[in-house]
Amino acid sequence: MPKKQINEEGEVNTFAIAQRLPPFWKMDPELWFLQADTIFNTASKGISSKCKFDATISRLDYDVLKLASDLVKWPPSNPYEELKKRLTAAFGESESQRIHKLLEDKQLGDQRPSHFLSEIKRLAGTLASEELIKSLWLKGLPERIKDIVAASAEDDLEKLAQVADRVIDAKTPALQIYAQECGASAKTTDIEELVQRLTEEVAALKTEMRSRQRSPERRGKFYRSRSPSNERVLCFYHQRFKNKAKHCVPPCDWTSRAGN
């Protein structure tokens, strides 16, 4: 027959309450104390801090108890609250650590960067800081895209995701078309060359955009000076495949050249 939690004199039976407590959970101290507080409150509304302290101490193993030995030897006026604070700090995880553990292996995969960002925000919840979300998002991006995004002067995370989307859009179609052009004969070195070329083009475009932002009055002059009338501009496909190219990406002078 279970022992009464309140004896005939109205005193709390600490031993009976302690028996209802599970052994202390080092892996999740916050959840353990939530359950303990529920048990204490249902046992007696006026249960003292000393009684809760004694009941909790009885459920600690040696490795945990030695971290609070000073509280056992010299109990403060509110021993349970101090013990709870001590053990939560010793074994608990911060919100940042929990989110990192949850998302540390998340990668972009075949998602668009903006969709990847939305997924991280959904999993992280409302308590994660913008800086933490940005760190986790950048960590999951491929290195080439991460380098371009990290070099951007944009601070807004949503706009950064849009920049990353544009980088993905600039690379992916060209790679797919190139694979169709070459078929089974495509070499790894050829694909790497294309990726490098596209990366350089994106970087050059980014530099041009920054230059235009610094000197907006020179915008017209800048574009007029890029393509002198006596200079032929060929796209990647006509440069590589000449008249066998099946695709053309503007700007490209091959059509007019072929017609001459």
From TrEMBL:
Database matches in InterPro entries: DUF7041
Keywords, comma-separated and alphabetical: Coiled coil
Cited Pfam families: DUF7041 (PF23055)
Domain DUF7041: 21-104
Coiled coil location: 188-215
Claim: Phosphoprotein is one of the keywords in the record: no
Name of the protein in its database record: DUF7041 domain-containing protein
